[in-house]
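Archive transcription. Copying these from loose printouts into the bound notebook so they stop getting lost. Printout 1 of 2:
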Amino acid sequence: MQTNYNTEQINHLIRHRRSTFPRQYSGEKVEKAIIEQILENANWAPTHGKTEPWRFFVFTGEGLQKFADFQAEMYQKFTPLEKFSPEKYEKMKQDPLKASHIIGIAMKRQKEGKIPEIEEVEAVACAVQNMYLTATAYGLGAYWSTGGVTYMEEAKEFFGLGEKDKLLGFFYIGKIATPSPDGERFPISEKVSWIEN
């Protein structure tokens, strides 16, 4: 079969995408042009009704400290004392500073509400997969975190998000010092049913 792309390389790229965590980063800065390319590829995700619901907030330089302080303070302010973890608080203060860039990920709900919300969330997830694959192609480490303040309603204001919008996590990017191990998957045959007659 004739193809327009190198399918072996594409298959390899998809199968070798890994989550690479902040502790694995070298501390070196990623070039702005690469971050812009990652975002541009995110913008080409599938979108039902052409709503393009993804919104991104890029933290780098001093912005990383601003993000670290914000999420740690939010966690401290809105976490009941019996559930508060000093270790988690410190991690929120320190992990962002290990990244080159952190991209806040949000879903902007269209006013008409014509497209089901779940489909808008799914479109943003497709955009994030584009980001993951682009980062991998450039040899960068990336990690989609949905911890911290991701699902706190009180965090939306910081990002200028409305009541029906959703904060969906944070995409950490850094140059790799310690690679992630090879991934594993159960056979696809265990997850597929063929209906042919």
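Printout 2 of 2:
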Amino acid sequence: MTEQDDTGSGPIRLFLVDDQELVRAGFRMVLDAQDDMTVVGEAGDGAAALSAIPVVRPDVVLMDIRMPRVDGVQATQQLSAAGPSPKVLVLTTFDLDEYAFAALRAGAAGFLLKDAGPAELLSAIRAVHGGDAVVAPSTTRRMLERFVDHLPSGAAADETAAADAAERRLAALTDREREVLVAVGRGLSNSEIAAELFLAEATVKTHIGRILHKLALRDRVHMVITAYETGLVGD
């Protein structure tokens, strides 16, 4: 993503990945009608997307999960591994889809149900592009709870070692930053965190930025996952 894209000077550049042409056409019709968005490319599977995305350099990729050849999880993993990459918004049919969970862990910035209305779709794209919020945080939280067994927790005999490892991982955080991480893990928005912790919203954003830096996390979604992995949320 370019510096120009990050500052918002120009429409959000979108790339559509879905194996159903009618689905892509429907999304394109809605998205191209927005003054602040433009569809710069599309692909019918992950392999074609991985070839085209470096060329057209979109800001946000709308990524289907279940596709032939290379699925959305594999495509997201390869985009993330390639270095600076567009934000990936996962499209899924079910809100408790293990594939969507895998895509979040692979580097996706959020996910959205395919039957979401136009207003929700547009809001989700803008949120992901801005990097300020997880898409549908309460749904993300429910999905993580559903698949918490997939997170590395260890057997009962390893619980002490796991707890020690989690504590070492979180050692760099201040008490306030831990509180903010817990709140993000619970699915609260910045404004909700500010109200709960009696902070200015700008201060919440500052804490989130510091947490991301200290724990070397990609984005807010991975803050949620980290809160579960370390036992701060979900026990």
